[in-house]
Amino acid sequence: MRRDKGYPGYWIPRMLEYCSRIEEIMSVRGEEMDDFMSDRDYQELCAWQLSQIGEAALQVDPAIKEKYPEVEWQEAVKFRNVLIHNYGNIDLSLVWFALTEDIPTLKRQCERIVSENEALWTRAR
Question: pTM for the complete prediction?
Answer without folding.
Answer: 0.89
